[in-house]
Write a structure and sequence with these properties.
CATH class: Mainly Beta
Low-confidence stretches: none
CATH architecture: Sandwich
Bound molecules: copper (II) ion
Mean pLDDT: 87
Number of domains: 1
Largest sheet: 8 strands, mixed
Structural class: mainly beta
Protein name: Plastocyanin-like domain-containing protein
CATH topology: Immunoglobulin-like
Strand content: 35-45%
Number of strands: 13
Organism: Paenibacillus motobuensis
Oligomer: single chain
Number of helices: 1
InterPro entries: Cu-oxidase_C (IPR011706), Cu-oxidase_fam (IPR045087), Cupredoxin (IPR008972)
Keywords: Copper, Metal-binding, Oxidoreductase
């Protein structure tokens, strides 16, 4: 629970997906003694047992240190979401709709796929979501719980937040 975790992704040989394919691990921590939102290596204790979470990460990083998701106009994009933490995170994508194509590894039949722009990811759950990059720009993808993107920091650092960025 201190953050040494990741995804083991077994590709489905029947999946015809060819576009960008991104893995996003959601996690949260209680970080003591943050320095302008930054945890200095070796300087602070991260308490995994606290329910006073104040540091919300995507792939171990807190905005603005999260990695943007580059796409090209027309791409079909897959995002693989995995919540390895203790909180639920309603992940919201601006400017687009997506379909939920898999839940906890299980492929969802085409006729049963929901179209959404927010998906609640509970502790332990995984979802694959897919959609077309059909709205050029720079779009937020973030947890919709304000505390999880605003944090208790004394500066403007922003938690579980990243962006979909169209390549020119
Ligand atoms: Cu959240």
């Amino acid at each position: 629970m201190m953050g040494l975790s990741g995804g083991l992704i077994i590709l489905d040989p029947n999946d015809s997906h060819t576009g960008p394919d991104y893995f996003m691990m959601l996690h949260e921590f209680h970080a003591k003694g943050l320095d302008k939102g930054i945890v200095r290596p070796g300087s602070y204790s991260l308490d995994p047992l606290s329910d006073m979470f104040n540091f919300f990460t995507i792939n171990g990083r807190c905005y603005p240190f999260t990695t943007p998701l580059p796409v090209a106009s027309g791409d079909r994009v897959k995002l693989r979401l995995a919540n390895v933490g203790m909180n639920a995170h309603p992940m919201h994508l601006h400017g687009h709709q997506f379909v939920i194509s898999a839940s906890d590894r299980n492929t969802i039949a085409l006729a049963n796929r929901l179209t959404k722009n927010t998906i609640p990811v509970a502790s332990g759950e995984t979802f694959d979501i897919e959609g077309f990059a059909n709205n050029p720009g720079i779009w937020p993808f973030h947890c919709h719980i304000p505390h999880h993107v605003a944090n208790n920091f004394t500066d403007s650092t922003g938690g579980m937040f990243t962006t979909v960025i169209y390549k020119r």
